[in-house]
Amino acid sequence: MSGWQPLPDDLPAEVRHFVEHLRLLKDRTGLSLAALGARTAYSKSSWHRYLNAGQPPPRQAVVALCRVAGTDPERIGVRWELAVQAWPRPVTVPERAPGGEEYRDDPTLPWWDTPPEMGESRPDGRLLRYALVLLVLMLLVTVVGAVLLG
User: Fold this and answer.
1) CA–CA separation, 76 vs 19, rounded Å?
2) What homologous superfamily is domain 13-86 in, according to CATH?
3) Is the pLDDT at 91 greater than 80, yes or no?
């Protein structure tokens, strides 16, 4: 891996192995970071962070890289899971939501990939209620319009 900056010495072995594998996949594509960013939904700077172990990539970024490199994403999935679990977390002050609750976002796992046991409790159905109210209003407007025009 000649063109890559060295990875930090204190990086866990799982993370080091995973990032080195990502670098090999990226090299296999023959694309620059900018070109890789154009072929995936992730920017050049995001790929720079992922490939230099500055931040763990989301699962979908790894899948996108595998697709571009012509590799089966299942083969790297286990490595991703092990690396994400071992990835060093920066010590930060937790952000607070407007109500004072602490945000619990995991930037490595998109909300659509969150396993049910990790997610919050079931949705309260607010979106469904809004949709039903909107449907009733549309029906009411249709009936009133038909009465006034007919």
Assistant:
1) 11
2) lambda repressor-like DNA-binding domains (1.10.260.40)
3) no
> Three-state SS for 43?
coil
Collect all residues with Cβ–Cβ distance below 8 Å to 4 and sequence separation of at least 6. 23, 51, 52
Query: Does pLDDT of 44 surpass 60?
Result: yes
CA distance 47 to 44: 5
Spell out the alpha helix ranges (H) of the chain.
13-29, 33-39, 44-51, 59-69, 74-86, 126-149
What per-residue confidence (pLDDT) applies to 94? 53
Question: Which of the two residues, 125 and 133, has the higher pLDDT score?
Answer: 133
3-state DSSP call for residue 5? coil
Structure tokens at 101: 């609750």
pTM confidence score? 0.59
Under 8 Å between Cβ of 40 and 68: yes
| Distance of alpha carbon 124 from alpha carbon 132, whole angstroms | 14
Chain CA centroid to CA 144, Å: 46
CB 109 within 8 A of CB 84: yes
